[in-house]
Write a structure and sequence with these properties.
Layout (H helix, E strand, L loop, with lengths): L11 E7 L6 H9 L6 E8 L5 H11 L3 E6 L4 H11 L4 E4 L5 E2 L3 H7 L6 E10 L16 E4 L1 H10 L10 E4 L20 H5 L4 E13 L16 H16 L4 H16 L9 H14 L2 H4 L5 H10 L3 H21 L1
Parallel strand pairs: 1-2, 1-4, 2-3, 6-9
Antiparallel strand pairs: 4-8, 5-9, 6-8, 7-9
Helix pairs in contact: 7-8, 8-9
Length: 336
């Protein structure tokens, strides 16, 4: 593979937060170790693990000088990423979650996509289950890469068609993190961070390559049972809306469409318990505010439009039918 010669020898920092992932960690670290682009450093941040995760990290550190491990008290994903960023020596940085893995050309493709010192390069991702079985269809590549404006890149992430706003699966200039950090103590930290990083780029490059395997496991943070911390999504959405609209007012529909998708997902997770009635009421108010957006947004996902249709039927029917559809989808994945 031909790589961008100007950045061929760039040191890439890979930050991997680690917390109680002994079942998945070795596969993740092996996928990093086997990269075809080998000029990188791996910063493993042991975020207070109580299982054998630290021992697995130390095994890789002992056998590969590119790996290092730092331990800290448990502070969550944002805290671990911020801690690792401060130790990064590379000119560019990427993040990998410790229960995911990357294909062997992940770094090669990202480096090849760099156009300038202030480029952000984005890879496509695919979903796998705990056993590594493919859960999503990979489309055949149509182009090598596409360079887009900052406004267009934000629009692409808001529409969620092939790319995601998650921190992982992207290559960033390390310098961007001198002024931006992940919000600690919050869920949905990527939604509150990625668009801010995009606004600093001179250009954003989208690769037509599925290089990042995003693991879907039932006990992950995003798939865990409902708790009130998940209402962080409302704060993150409002902050994102205000920040983006101040610079890109043409993205109003796309933002509301993205907000609706996030809010309805959490809404359908809320158990029918008295202690969560206020949370349900609060989310339903947000959903009603944004339910027109999927029909007004060109390129909105069909599932968003379906959910919006249910939202117009009222809260009770939206909950009943929506939960049934979610349960059917989960059952289908388990059976496949």
């Amino acid at each position: 593979m031909w790589l961008n010669k100007m950045y061929l020898k760039s040191l890439i920092s890979i930050v991997i937060p680690v917390y109680n992932v002994e079942k998945y960690l070795e596969k993740c670290l092996q996928s990093v170790q086997n990269q075809t682009y080998n000029h990188f450093e791996v910063i493993l941040v042991n975020d207070g693990s109580t299982d054998s995760s630290l021992s697995i990290c130390e095994k890789f550190v002992n056998q590969d000088k590119r790996f290092s491990v730092l331990s800290k008290e448990n502070g969550g994903l944002s805290s671990a990423r911020n801690f690792g960023i401060k130790k990064a020596k590379g000119s560019f940085i990427t993040f990998v979650d410790s229960d995911d893995y990357i294909v062997k050309d992940y770094l090669s493709h990202l480096v090849d996509g760099i156009k300038s010192e202030t480029s952000i390069v984005c890879s496509k991702f695919f979903l796998v289950d705990e056993k590594g079985n493919l859960l999503t269809k990979k489309e055949a590549p149509k182009k090598k890469s596409e360079v887009v404006s900052i406004e267009e890149s934000i629009k692409i992430f808001l529409l969620q068609n092939g790319y995601d706003h998650s921190a992982w699966g992207k290559l960033y200039p390390v310098s961007f993190f001198e002024t931006i950090s992940f919000p600690e103590g919050k869920l949905y930290e990527d939604m509150g961070t990625t668009y801010k990083l995009l606004k600093l780029a001179s250009e954003v490059v989208f690769l037509d390559a599925y290089d990042y395997a995003y693991s879907q496991r039932p006990n992950s943070i995003m798939n865990s049972s409902f708790n009130l911390k998940k209402l962080d999504i409302i704060e993150m959405v409002h902050e994102m809306e205000n920040d983006i609209l101040a610079q890109f007012p043409n993205l109003a529909c796309q933002i509301k469409n993205r907000a609706f998708a996030a809010e309805v997902k959490i809404f359908l997770e809320i158990p029918k318990k008295k202690e969560f009635e206020q949370a349900q009421k609060k989310l339903w108010h947000e959903i009603k505010e944004n339910r027109k957006a999927p029909f007004m947004t060109k390129g909105a996902r069909l599932k968003n439009k379906l959910a919006a249709s249910l939202a117009f039927l009222g809260k009770s029917l939206c909950l009943t039918i929506g939960k049934q559809l979610v349960d059917t989808r989960i059952a289908t994945r388990i059976a496949s």
